[in-house]
Amino acid sequence: MTKLEQMRRIEACGIVAIIRANSANELIDAAAAIHAGGVNVIEVTMTTPNALQVINDVSSTYGDSVLVGAGSVLDAETARAVMLAGAEFIVSPVTKAAVIEICNRYGKVVIPGAFTPTEILMAWEAGADYVKVFPSSGVGASYIKDIKAPLPHIPLVPTGGINVENAGEFISAGATALGVGSALVNNQLIEAGEFESLTERAKKLCAEVQRARLQR
Length: 216
What we know:
Layout: H1 3-13, E1 15-19, H2 24-36, E2 41-45, H3 51-62, E3 67-71, H4 76-85, E4 89-91, H5 97-105, E5 109-111, E6 113-114, H6 117-125, E7 131-133, H7 141-148, E8 156-158, H8 167-172, E9 178-180, H9 187-191, H10 195-215
Parallel strand pairs: 1-2, 1-9, 2-3, 3-4, 4-5, 6-7, 7-8
Helix pairs in contact: 2-3, 2-10, 4-5
């Protein structure tokens, strides 16, 4: 899959599901549940036990039907390792030039984290494909609107505190996509086997994103 195809998948879905699970099997089951609800972009965080094997297992199971990426990537060595395991996009909570460089070298989407206007611009100028505005939980959708006013050309992916109640607000404010974690998938639901709930959550989030885009 080319970088352009990766980016089209992310933008079409509008949601990057951030999943932390205790095993590959649990994560695969959770991925199946949210995929049934319309979310086909999944970020496996490096805080997941045996994350490299999980990324490999999920990408092997779903092939091109699910875009699998890696999150919480803090250095170039980890970035390369997750690419070899099957990750098609790389997400970091911070901006590291070496991570951006290696992702661009191998044609993988890179989404570094930044917060202030200066950090966001620096990440973009360093070669980011999108900039993860993190954490967004304390500032809300109005912050994205404020950032987009002077920096309209930078595609933003706010992450932190995003849920079905405020997803539309972030899209309306100018977000290209949303990073959604526990409001979509959490270990309690996974361990309880409540996969139908995950599917319903995914459907509602997708509906909110599309509704907001139509009204934007």
